[in-house]
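Example (one chain per record):
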Amino acid sequence: MRTGVRGIVVAAAMVAALAGCGGGGGTDPAGGAAGATGAPGATGAPGATDGAGAGGKEQSQPASLDATGLLKALPVSAEFTDGTYTGGDPEVVPEADAAKFCADNLEGVDCAGVKSGSIKDLVLAGNSSDDQATFTLYTFGTEAEATAVLKAVEKKRQAPQGEGGPFTPVKVESGGADESFAVERDDYVGVYMRVGTVVSYVSTGDFGRERAERAAQVQIGRLKLVLGGGDPDA
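Predicted structure:
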């Protein structure tokens, strides 16, 4: 069982229009994320002012992702060494559709503050089973908004789940997310993570826990590199 993609398709013209715009058990805090001035796909940077804090000190604005960054941060099949993966084109979701897209894929929680999102599927080619991973990213206005959504999803996953039975919290090493948690049930493993203002959800079926962990690490590695101003495909 996995949480499926809810079929939001965004035209290429919308992606182009947005490209220049700014944009286991329990949650596991793990440190901070860095941004870089002028980073392609990243907006905001250490030292950027976001009002004055207590005592007149300037507060830095956390790095976020615009449409270009949201697409670039999604994994590519070449990063997986356990087989040949294929998938559809990555899609970006504009702010007008972001709240519904986020709620549809994150257990119906209130995604207050979500600005945009992106999504991509990867399927193991030539396999009769249903080996598939879906990667979704959601960028928020603040880290507090992103954290609130992550914790709301975790609370939902801990609640009784009807006929399917409960989800089991599992330990998955995210590879450096600020916060993360993971659950499994039957052939499904889901890994939920946050880096800065970006929430990542990696949903896998027939992957097993180890491959799901590797998929999460690939996603976080790309996300952190893009947020820091790097190009993961260079």
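Caption: Residues 208-227 form the longest helix (20 residues).
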